[in-house]
Amino acid sequence: MSYEDFVEGIKPRFHETDDGSKQLIYEVESGLFKIACAHAAYNTYLELHSSEERPASAELVSKFNSGVFQKAMANQDIQGKPVVLIIDEINRGNVSAIFGELITLIEESKRAGRDEALEVILPYSKQKFFVPSNLYLIGTMNTADRSVEALDTALRRRFAFVEMMPNAELLGDIIIENINLQHVLSRINNRIKVLLDKDHQIGHSYLINVQSRRDLTHAFNNCIVPLLKEYFYRDEEKIALVLGAGFVEIEKDSFSVDLFPDFDKIRKPQYKPKLNVLEVPEENIIDALNQLIG
């Protein structure tokens, strides 16, 4: 997502003329953040004009641009219903480029109606823009994802952080053929914390909807095992330590030291058993998990 998608940008569209032909034109189009601000501002405006019928979203943005809601926003005693904008995996984007000059405006002290309230002139529409105090931004980020840059420092200090770790206790009531999924997830994550770190623990969402042996088999073969293969790339021994003997097999190898020529000062390679991570069939999943729990 770019600044143009998030705040506003110039977008092409076709306009049908009087003679029926289509003409390509360019218009300033509001992004998700600007639309959310318009809805939040209107909610506060409604506290003064409660009898007004709620207009369509496009009309809301137009009124927001024209400054209709500013009087309500300037009153610190008026607080409209909250509007929440959730940004999933906020650390995957170039946050500074997406927010642009609005990074300062999202601070609580710079919101409309506050003592240090700020406005900016947007670059495309040339309209005044402010961030209402009843707009709440929630960003999610996966700390295990090392392929993305750390969250921008300028944005980091404008958010409060709440760590949401996997909660195995939410699985306490899910028991499949005497297999308690809370115990399964706890055992897996305790091993991952030792072999890797706490940020790579398996989330409870993989197992929370499991209702049968088939669901359990699917969760491991299609979700949990592939994730562990990514975490422990080409390190089947560690995967075996996490999942137990029921999920791996020793590869049958015809390796022999006689395969290699003799040298006086070169030692021949020693045989080391290789492990293969299995796709456990449904009929064996319970036995495999019993071995995992130990």
Automatic annotation (TrEMBL):
* ATPase dynein-related AAA domain mapped to chain residues: 63-159
- Molecular function as annotated in GO: ATP binding; ATP hydrolysis activity
**Highest taxon in the source lineage:** Bacteria
SUPFAM superfamilies membership: P-loop containing nucleoside triphosphate hydrolases
This chain's protein is named AAA family ATPase
